[in-house]
């Protein structure tokens, strides 16, 4: 691991300037080595505030977007979280530092295997994963206090709203057109009433139905 403390500190300072104020989120980003989740060819760019390509045409999200979406989830150590789109596993590892347990679904088996190896190397033990279709959620483990989706849905998946607990929060990018996507905050109150709030403009890979074919 070629962790560079100076570059990591610079990234944390940049995130603060961009409005990430939750000290626990910043601490999680400081404690999770992003280079573990970045392909070898991009190791030297692990602490730049940019998205980077990973296998299967996917990306590891920009640290600012990871921090922002995590901050908007309003996590604490009691929360049970569903993540749709394990990807590199970086966002998953950040969540794991901040909640009781993360259930993470990935449609690409090869990505999930790489992420699981990273979790094992970092001795993170409160993540449960499976290969599956994120649109379906994880019915057997529902309800979830928090849901985070890391790919852009054309519209908010009804299955995920159903699996969100009362007093729950879901954060997800929404928009069929990559040039017109926004992070949306879905809140379910104590009576099960659902409200939606449009937040930050973003650009995410699309949320695709089904499990990816083995290549």
Give the arrangement of secondary structure elements:
Elements: H1 5-17, H2 23-31, E1 52-53, E2 59-60, H3 63-72, E3 80-84, H4 90-96, E4 101-106, H5 109-121, E5 127-131, E6 144-149, H6 158-163, E7 164-174, E8 181-188, E9 194-202
Parallel strand pairs: 3-4, 3-6, 4-5, 6-7
Antiparallel strand pairs: 1-2, 7-8, 8-9
Summarize it.
This protein is an alpha/beta fold and 215 residues long.
Question: What report would you give on this structure?
Answer:
With 215 residues, the protein is α/β, with parallel strands linked by helices. It has one domain: Vaccinia Virus protein VP39 (Rossmann fold, 3-Layer(aba) Sandwich). It contains six helices and nine strands. The two termini are 29 Å apart. The model has no long low-confidence stretch (mean pLDDT 93).
Largest sheet: 7 strands, mixed
The figure for the number of domains is: 1
Annotated CATH homologous superfamily:
Vaccinia Virus protein VP39
Radius of gyration (CA) equals 16 Å
Which architecture name does CATH use?
Answer: 3-Layer(aba) Sandwich
What's the rounded overall pLDDT mean?
A: 93
Uncertain residue segments: none
| Separate helix tally | 6
Beta fraction: 25-35%
**Oligomeric status:** single chain
Percent helix among the residues? 25-40%
- What structural category do the secondary elements indicate? alpha/beta
The level-1 CATH class: Alpha Beta
In total, how many beta strands? 9
N-to-C order of helices and strands: HHEEHEHEHEEHEEE
Shape: globular
- CATH-defined fold name: Rossmann fold
């Amino acid at each position: 691991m070629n962790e560079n403390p100076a570059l990591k500190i610079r990234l944390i300072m940049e995130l603060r300037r961009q409005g990430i104020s939750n000290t626990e989120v910043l601490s999680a980003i400081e404690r999770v080595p992003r280079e573990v989740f970045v392909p070898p060819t991009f190791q030297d760019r692990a602490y730049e505030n940019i998205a980077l390509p990973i296998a299967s045409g996917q990306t590891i999200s920009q640290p600012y977007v990871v921090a922002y979406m995590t901050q908007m989830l309003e996590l604490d150590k009691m929360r049970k979280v569903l993540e749709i789109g394990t990807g590199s596993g970086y966002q998953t590892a950040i969540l794991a530092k901040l909640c009781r347990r993360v259930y993470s679904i990935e449609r690409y088996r090869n990505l999930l295997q790489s992420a699981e190896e990273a979790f094992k190397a970092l001795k993170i033990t409160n993540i449960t994963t499976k290969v599956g279709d994120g649109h379906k959620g994880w019915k057997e483990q529902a309800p979830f206090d928090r849901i985070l989706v890391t790919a852009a849905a054309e519209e908010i998946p009804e299955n995920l709203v159903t699996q969100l607990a009362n007093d729950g929060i879901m954060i997800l990018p929404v928009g069929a057109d990559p040039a017109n996507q926004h992070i949306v905050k879905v809140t379910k109150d104590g009576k099960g009433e659902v409200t939606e709030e449009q937040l930050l403009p973003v650009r995410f890979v699309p949320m695709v139905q089904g499990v990816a074919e083995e290549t």
